[in-house]
Amino acid sequence: MPRITRRKVILLSGSTLAVAATLPYTSILAESKDSLGWDAFLKTCEDLSGAQFEEHWIKNQDDYTKKIENLLIRLNLEDDKIVEFIESYNNYNTRFPEIRTIHRKTEFQVSLLEFESDEKIPLHDHPDMTGVVICTHGKIDVAHYDKLTETSENDLPLLKKERDLTMTPGMTATLTVNRGNIHELHAKEFTRMIDVFTPPYNRDRSSRSRYYWIGEETYEDRTDTYEAEMTRGPFRR
């Protein structure tokens, strides 16, 4: 019998993964009568994404992200198209997770994120965007911060911790323009996630996006508040 390596298990089809019990939440979703195939998921996301053009969008973002969160929970990960995305995984970046846009429209985008063990995305923001992510495989630590309107005495940004969580398959997390918009992700083992951002990245939002670097000490002994430095890229010089 051929030896099955960790990588081969990761690349197996969704049905085989369910049998191997490597993605127990997948089989639960697939068996649910209320589950959504890929095409139905995209169509519903498209219908909901129109909310960003409504008058009270800023106030309604928590409600919107909750609806997208519910869709991700219902997404059938054994849909042939999703299995195809998963099976095409390659670890091209040795220092950074693989982030692949698997659907993009003017209103929203869906991406597949794959982390090797110990890979991370440092603190970064999403200008004028909402985000919803679900963990479908593995284990990953996520920290969310809010950017305060005030700055430090050095005229640097101040970030306040909003929440910490460790995500495992089936768990979701959300961010809005004003809540938890700055976050970092650090995988404890091979991890796969799917996220939905509304609106999607474009040239303007990409140009305004920044990475943040904080120390271990809080700012002036204020609880969960840190002075931050900013960079354009994910690596400090």
Strand order of the largest sheet: 3-8-5-6-11-10
Tell me the distance between the termini: 49 Å
What oligomeric assembly is this protein in? single chain
What percentage of amino acids are in beta strands?
25-35%
Low-confidence stretches: 1-31
List the total number of helices: 7
Overall description:
By secondary structure, the chain is α+β, with helices and mostly antiparallel strands. The chain has a 6-stranded antiparallel beta sheet, with no helix packed on it. The longest helix has 18 residues. It is globular. The N terminus is likely disordered.
Descriptors:
6-stranded antiparallel beta sheet, 27% helix, 237 residues, 11 strands, alpha+beta, 5-stranded antiparallel beta sheet, globular
Topology:
Blueprint: H1 6-11, H2 14-20, H3 24-31, H4 38-49, H5 57-74, H6 80-87, E1 98-104, E2 109-115, E3 120-124, E4 130-137, E5 140-151, E6 157-167, E7 172-175, E8 182-187, E9 191-198, H7 203-208, E10 211-214, E11 225-231
Summarize the structure.
The chain has 237 residues and is of the alpha+beta class. Helix content is 27%, strand content 33%.
